[in-house]
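Hi everyone,

Forwarding the result from last night's run.
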Amino acid sequence: MIYFDSAATTLQKPPQVAQAVQRAIRTCASVGRGGHPAAMAAAETVYGCREAAAKLFDAEVEQVAFTMNATHALNIAIRTLVPEGAKVVISGFEHNAVTRPLHALGADITVAGRRLFSATDTLWAFDEATRVRPAAVICTHVSNVFGYVLPIKEIAALCRSRNIPLIIDAAQSAGVLPVSLRESGARFIAMPGHKGLYGPQGTGLLLCADGGEPLLYGGTGSNSEEQDMPEFLPDRLEAGTHNVCGIAGLREGIRFVTRQTTQRIFDHEQALLCHLQRLLRGQAGLELFCGDGQSGVLSFRVRGMDCETAAEKLAQQQIAVRAGLHCAPYAHESAGTLHSGTVRASFSAFNTHREVEQFASACKKLFRP
C-alpha cells in the first residue's frame, strides 16, 4: 500500500516505537503510585518523554503536559483563556478542534485571513483584528487541508507586542517545522503524538508557558490530601493514570525526529511535494491547490467527480488518501471548496519518490477527462 494520509496519522512508524510500547506493557505500572520497580520504570519512561519533548520544543520539562491528543490539549488551552462569550481571533484555516470548543463557549469569533497561501494577507488581517484586544488569538501553524504554512512567527510577535495570549495549534507542524515555546511567547502550544512525532494514537502534548485550568479532576499521585487539583504543572493538567505505553512509544518517535532533525524531514516532504506537483501540473481534469509556503500536503479536485469517489478509486489501487472536508470547514470556506471538499495527499519521512510517481501514474489513468 502507498500511504499518503500522514496528515491524519503517520501509519509508518520507526520500529522502535512499537518495540517501546510492547516493552512498556510488560514492564511499566503507573506513575506516582508506588516505589516498586514497575512504578519506577513507568516514572522514568514518562519523564524521559517529557524531557525529550521539552528539548525539541524549547520548553522546561514541567511545561510539558500529556494529553490524549491535540484536541484534548486545545480544549484545555481554550477553556483556560476564553470566558463564555469572549472575543477571540482565529485564522481562516482552523480545524474543528478549535472552532467547536469556541462555539460551545458562545465565543465572539473574528476570522482573520482567508486568502490561501498569502502570508501577507493573513498577517495584515491579524493586525487589523487584534487592534481591539481579544481574550485570545488562536492560530494553526499549518493548514491540515492545504499545507499552507501560516506566518506564525510574525503573528506571535504581534500578540506579544499587544499582550494578547496566543494558542498555537501545531498539529501539522510538530516534528516537521521548528516549534519553540520560549521563542514564540505563546501561552499554549498543542500537538498530537500520532502525526509528525510518529507516536501512537491516543497521545498528545500541551506546552504551557504557565498555569492552565484542568478539564479532568482526580488523582495525580501528588498532594493527595488536598481536594483541589495541584497548582503546579504538569500535575494540574494530568488527572488519572497516564497512557504509559503510548508515552513510551511517543518518546521513541520524538527521539527519531530529533535524530533526523525537523529540517531534514521538512526538506524530504518538500521534495516529494514538488515532485508530485510537477507530475500532476497540467493534467486535464485536475485542479491542484499549490502556493508559496506549503508543507508536505497537496489537495486537489477532480473535475466532474465527487472527491469521495476519487479517493475510493485510489483506494482500490492500494493508495491511501483522505477526501472530504478534513474536519476543517473554515479552511474549505476560505479556499472556496466547502461544497466539494478535496482529495488530500500528505507525506511523511517514510514516503519515497517512487511512490509519488506511482501515485501520479494512477491519477492520470483514473482521472482522465
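The radius of gyration is 21 Å.

Cheers,
N.
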